[in-house]
Design a protein that fits this description.
This protein is of the alpha/beta class and 570 residues long. The protein has 17 helices and 22 strands. The relative contact order is 0.16.
């Protein structure tokens, strides 16, 4: 949250709210915020965020938003670049829709007050890897923060949007194969909220990997929730590993924006050689998966301890004034860890960054479950394919979030009426004494620590079928152990039928740890099984035992329950 905005979290968390809404939006990153703003203002909207209103992966986004606004650029070029990066798995109509609606979303953000950088009075554009033109708009190197803070201010000004802060969505509420609402953990209570429609905008699942640029809240909640409800999921094996995350002892894996390389920074080894040209003609400006594998391969060849190994990102080829203007946040973070970017290069290594796969959704954000929609990173709309083009992610949040403006016109809406004339809570109250034994807590904490380590080692940048099979067996064993915990059995009984639980005895943080670990186990299993299912290498999915791209696998991977199958790219 920027200083110019109020700090509403404490008051929002304490504000009473009804048990019924027209629409519930789960997640308050760029996708959730923009969706809530675009929904018709005659609807009563509940916006649920599991942390503070301003904390999301979108808030961390540095690079920018891609859009065709330069006369020397064209939608056809942006489409071609996106399809090229997607390695044959982008759905053309989805990409076309994304690109053609980009400029209107940018206009909307500018009108809302997003302060994009300008050059000679015009919106400034930068180049990022795999783009054929300068088309990335930015606000210094904190574009996500600029967008999210502006959207947050807009949301707080809308009386029909009720923000439910510091609330964890545990499961969907289903009746007769339709989504009726959600089950929510909030202020020590488990509540069931009913809605005509639920929109999942929960972001990615980077925390399933030991090395990630994602914030701690990115535990794949939306995908896990949708999977348990029986939704169709797609392309879960495709994870983008960002090539350049800060790698220094004690520091978080802070992302060093791709825009740094677009402005002229070099990737070098200990000898100062630009080694990436050995792996690709475009060197530092090759697609992200190529650069990540180049760094990983180089480190494998030259280093013994890959947990601390790194290469160097040298900003010194960029004019100092340009660095100060474009990358003030990167300068500040590096200084915090004793690195002067004007005097020395930054130690970097790849880390899990973005999940191309997710809940299968069409151009109107429909999922396979009636009344359930998905937007942003948690959705798979077909725009990213096997490898997302840089700065198309914030764009996707906006373009597809705007689609929900038509929600009340969608089929079946009028038949799923919700009585919002009363703010009274549901009548079926009960009290549950949910406690977590010391032994259960130790097990949960151990799993929370071990899951990312195993997934990083088995389904990270380079994968192998035998290693993944062993990891799948391990995760399945952990799932059985987790389900057998007394805590899990008690909560499963609570979640099996709608009833507002007035109080729980255990700390809400402990119950959230249980819920996130449950989701991470689901996400770990899904990624591993999807990666094992796809016997080729393509985009963000690379298998050392199947290193080549196979034309027979130019298809989507779909999963629903225990069923796995392929579907053609459209």
């Amino acid at each position: 949250m920027t200083e110019s905005l109020p700090s509403p979290e404490s008051s929002l968390a304490a504000t009473p709210f009804p048990d019924q809404f027209d629409v519930l939006v789960i997640g308050a990153g760029a996708a959730g915020l923009y969706t809530a703003l675009c929904l018709p203002d005659q609807l009563q909207i509940g916006l649920i965020t599991k942390d503070t209103l301003s904390l999301s992966a979108s808030d961390w986004a540095q690079g920018g938003i891609a859009a065709v606004i330069d006369p020397q650029d064209s939608p056809e070029l942006h489409i071609a670049d996106t399809l090229q990066a997607g390695a044959g798995l982008c759905d053309y109509e989805a990409v076309k829709y994304l690109v053609e609606h980009a400029s209107s979303c940018i206009d909307n953000l500018v009108n809302m007050g997003v302060a994009f950088d300008r050059h000679n009075g015009e919106l400034a554009l930068t180049l990022e890897a795999a783009h054929s033109r300068r088309r990335v708009l930015h606000a210094a190197d904190t574009t996500g923060r600029a967008v999210v803070s502006t959207l947050t201010a807009q949301v707080l000004a809308r009386k029909h949007i009720h923000v439910i802060s510091q609330a964890f969505t545990l499961d969907l509420w289903l009746e007769q194969q339709q989504c009726q609402g959600v089950c929510l953990l909030h202020q020590g209570q488990i509540r069931w909220l009913r809605a005509k429609a639920v929109v999942l905008a929960t972001g990615g699942g980077g925390q399933v990997f030991a090395q990630t640029t994602n914030p701690s809240l990115s535990t794949g909640d939306g995908v896990a929730i949708a999977y348990r409800a029986g939704a169709v999921l797609r392309d879960l094996e495709f994870v983008q590993f960002h090539p350049t995350a800060l790698t220094t002892p004690g520091a978080p894996r802070f992302l060093i924006s791709e825009a740094v390389r677009g402005e002229g920074a070099h990737l070098v080894n200990d000898q100062g050689d630009r080694f990436t040209f050995k792996y690709h003609l475009a060197g530092e400006l090759a697609p992200r998966d190529v650069v990540s594998r180049a760094i990983f391969s180089y480190l494998q060849e030259t280093q013994t301890d890959l947990s601390t190994a790194h290469v160097w990102l040298d900003l010194r080829p960029i004019p100092p004034d340009r660095i100060r203007y474009r990358f003030p946040n990167i300068i500040q973070v590096c200084q915090r860890w004793g690195i002067d970017v004007f005097q020395s290069p930054i130690p970097v290594a790849p880390a899990a960054h973005y999940w191309m796969g997710g809940i299968a959704a069409d151009l109107s954000n429909h999922t396979s479950i009636s009344g359930l929609y998905a937007v942003g990173e948690t959705a798979s709309t077909g725009v990213h394919g096997a490898n997302r083009l840089a700065s198309n992610s914030l764009l996707e949040c906006l373009v597809f979030g705007a689609q929900l403006a038509h929600l009340s016109k969608l089929e079946g809406w009028s038949h799923r009426a919700v009585n919002r004339d009363t703010g009274e809570p549901a009548k079926n109250h009960s009290t549950a004494q949910i406690s977590v034994s010391p032994a259960d807590r130790i097990t949960i904490e151990q799993l929370r620590h071990e899951i990312p380590r195993v997934v990083w080692q088995s389904a990270g940048i380079c994968r192998d079928g035998q290693v993944m099979a062993q990891a799948i067996a391990q995760v399945e064993q952990w799932q059985q152990e987790f389900a057998a915990l007394a805590t899990s059995q008690t909560l499963q009984n609570v979640l099996s039928a709608p009833a507002n639980i007035q109080s729980v005895a255990e700390s809400e943080l402990t119950l959230r740890l249980w819920a996130e670990t449950r989701n991470l186990l689901t996400v770990a299993s899904l990624i591993l099984k999807s990666a094992h299912f796809r016997t080729e290498s393509r985009g963000g999915h690379y298998r050392s035992d199947y290193p080549n791209t196979d034309p027979r696998w130019q298809v989507h991977t779909l999963v629903q329950g225990d069923r796995w199958w392929q579907s053609p790219v459209t």
